[in-house]
Amino acid sequence: MEDGRFRLLVDSLPELIWMSGKDKRCLYFNQQWLTFTGRSLQQELGNGWMEGVHRSDYERRASIYASAFDNGEAFTIEYRLRRFDGEYRWVLDTGRPWYSSDRKFAGYVGSAIDITERKQAEQAVRESEERFRQLAENIDQVFWFMEASPQRVLYVSPAFERFWGISAQALYNNPELWIHAVHTEDRARVERLFLSWVAGERDAFDVEYRVQGHDGLVRWIHDRGTKIYDDAGELVRLSGIAENITARKQAAEDREQLQIQVQQSQKMEAIGRLTGGIAHDFNNILASILGYTGLALRRFVTDKEGKLAEYLQEVYRAGERAQDLVTQMLAFGRDTDGESKPRKLGSLVDETIKMLQSSLPSGIELSAPLEDDTPAVMIDSVHLYQLMINLCINACDAMAGRGRIHIYLRHLQGVNTLCSSCHRQVQGEFVELTVKDTGIGMGPDVMGRMFDPFFSGKTPVKGTGMGLSVVHGIVHDRNGHIVVESTQNVGSAFRLLFPVVKNEKDSKNSKRSKRKKGVGGKG
What is the 3-state secondary structure (H, E, C) of 2-63? Predict the structure, then answer.
């Protein structure tokens, strides 16, 4: 009777129950086991049940089972067992030794439960974690998770080390390391925004800033944070994504620089054409004024010391000054060309300096450390004289007649800078002619407009505003560039960069560039 109640109890359990003798052969399976496998008790007894174990798990299951028997130890094992419908299901099987009434080892009793859903869930989690790991390790973004209070980094993806130059483990040990790597100009702002966001004073943490890694490179980062709350509405986690936007920032800067170049080119070309046209018409009018004024002085003025002679001479001198202005306008409009050919600047600069020294105010000192035997560039003596006269006159005005002008001539290789006139990147090999003064310097407003025609920082009495425009036209007509460095109350330096002529092809290209009309040839 008791045996019947025991069997009834065991058959009603949801677990798969089995029992073996001390010979390792099974001598009992409950009804749940038989229902699961779809086999009869006779088929399962002995070692018949092993026929349902998946072949990949068979040897491992048998080995653990035998080892436990030999040592009289309990065991737990996971393996796949064939169900009645032919599907292999994962089971967790636990076996323990049992003893007879006289305390002698009698075999094992065990129970198995279906854990297929759990195994599938674990596999799904592993696959998800693997996908996340692959994504985190290969994407050019930083994923981060932190405890809100106290602030402790729970996870940061490998890209963090690439951007910040700090290992993830170091950040786990010291959560403040990320802010220490933020660029010094951005650090206080970013830290203030982050802390106010955590404290609930700001709705969002969405900020761009620079970080400087151990490799010395500065990278732009776009960092966005999200808050995670528990069921009670308490802030428990902080998470976010930090993206490397350096390329995007650089592209935006390049687009802005290109726009400036295009605008400058279009402006200079339009003004150049207008200036050239006006200068031609104005020159014709001046020719008449000067011609008839000279004729009147020679033929109709008998008293050379009288008022009429004085007045006509003033008209003639004013006409000559106007003619000088027209000459500059024509040079800017590029309707007048000298004979440019490959020349070494040393002797030309020396000759020009000798002429300059006699015309400079007595309070101006002139020094000219020139490199010997610099390579040839495309230039003509008239235009070189124009360049140096214009720059030295500007320097004298900036120093109010007292100071020092330094003129340098040197050969440069590997130049990599930005042209202050056409705003293009300048790279390569050049001969540099520099005129540097110790004057009042220029502010950003003047620096931004100094090459515009008719713009002048001088009084109307002192200048027309064409000097630097003429310098721009002459230099860029020869595929050169201008770099200006200026500090207020310290002085200014105008560096003229002329490309080195290495062969006949360079010479022909320069001449072909000169024949183009307008002011577009700023290469």
Answer: HHHHHHHHHHHCCCEEEEEECCCCEEEECHHHHHHHCCCHHHHCECHHHHHECHHHHHHHHH
Output the pTM of the full model: 0.42
- Identify whether residues 384 and 487 lie together within a single domain: yes
Which amino acid, 513? Answer: S
Residue 370 included in any domain: yes
- Of the three residues 289, 318, 336, the one that is the final residue of a domain is 336
239 Cβ neighbours under 8 A, 6+ residues apart: 143, 144, 145, 146, 225, 226, 228
Is residue 130 one of the residues assigned to a domain? no
The verdict on residue 61 lying in a domain is yes
Each residue's pLDDT, cut to its tens digit, for the chain (523 residues) gives 355 666 777 877 889 999 999 888 999 999 999 999 999 999 999 999 999 999 999 999 889 988 988 888 899 999 999 999 999 999 999 999 988 888 888 899 999 999 999 988 888 888 877 777 776 666 668 878 888 888 888 888 888 888 888 888 888 888 888 888 888 899 999 999 998 888 888 878 999 999 987 777 888 889 998 888 888 888 888 888 888 888 888 777 777 766 766 666 666 666 666 666 666 667 777 777 888 788 888 877 777 778 888 888 888 887 776 766 666 666 555 544 456 788 888 888 887 787 777 667 888 888 888 887 889 998 887 778 778 878 888 888 888 878 899 998 999 998 999 898 888 889 999 999 999 999 888 888 787 778 776 555 554 434 444 568 778 878 888 889 999 999 888 899 999 999 998 765 555 555 554 444 333 333 3
CATH code, domain carrying 316:
1.10.287
The verdict on 389 and 493 lying in the same domain is: yes
Segments forming the whole domain that contains residue 272: 251-336
Say which residues have a Cβ less than 8 Å from residue 234's Cβ, sequence separation at least 6.
none
